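name: query_chain
kind: protein
chains: 1
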Amino acid sequence: ALPNLKFESQTLTSFAGLVVLQKFFMAIDLKARLSRCFRHVNGGKVFDRTVVFLQLIVHLLLGFRELQDCRYYRDDPLVKRLLGLKRLPDVATLSRMLKEAGAKSVEGLRRVLREMVLDRLRSIAPARITLDFDGSVQSTKRHAEGTAVGFNKKKKGARSYYPLFCTIAQTLQVFDFLHRSGNVHDSNGAKGFILACIDEVRSVLPKVQIEVRMDSAFFSDEIVLALAERGVEFTISVPFERFVELKGMIEQRRRWHRLDGDTWYFETSWKPQCWDRRFRFLFIRTRAKKQRKGPVQLDLFVPHEYGYEFKVIVTNKTLSAERVTAYHEGR
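structure:
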């Protein structure tokens, strides 16, 4: 429960709201959980690495992104009270201790994050759990370790990371992440990561129905078949440029079923030639509100009709087309 706060006419710090987070950190026992991640490197230092990492969490919650910004709350009494310190470490100390946190610390942190999410799932006991998988470009201003130049639509040519995230739709929590450099494809290491997340959830909640939704970057026969064999419900966007047959099926289609005011669909049981099993493919046509300007790239493969946009979803769900589309768009 949230504490009942009353701010009287007295001198307050700029970060007085941290008292709510202090109560929350105590409720979830955050400091004790984090200490297990850095137990192998703690000791013999002025500052405990657990407290340093907790400071980074507070640093982000206060709205800061650069380590240099810690000077704005360096002398704040409530920040010190929250961290249990009489003085805060300087920027050089933060950088040095971050450098000392190796792969073992990162793996310990991932394990703690998964445990906290699973504890929450146990408490709410949902009938089904929705796992969303997607990559996210994390730009860096300098030549940070492990970064590379890759696809970055916001800052072209900038070095970045491209981690793969698994999030729980029911609780809006990040369940796990796969750290990657910025020059890899979305599918790099995706299959093993996806199956590991599914197995982790199923080991704790064996009776829950797991469902997955992903974009076209993760579309492959290996991933589709692996999900089907594990009894996982899924919806995955299909890339047009890999299958010329899809374009032909759309262009030859004359009768479309109305999904809503601006959307129509048809579906079929189909498989690419290299697959061993057929699946349900849902073809969706949406009326475009704006005229598409410029040349249409890959016009040989991407279906194009003035006033409409197309997409295809492969799924093993047995719901109606309307509900499958709504579920997939929930990403």
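note: The first strand starts at residue 128 and ends at 135.
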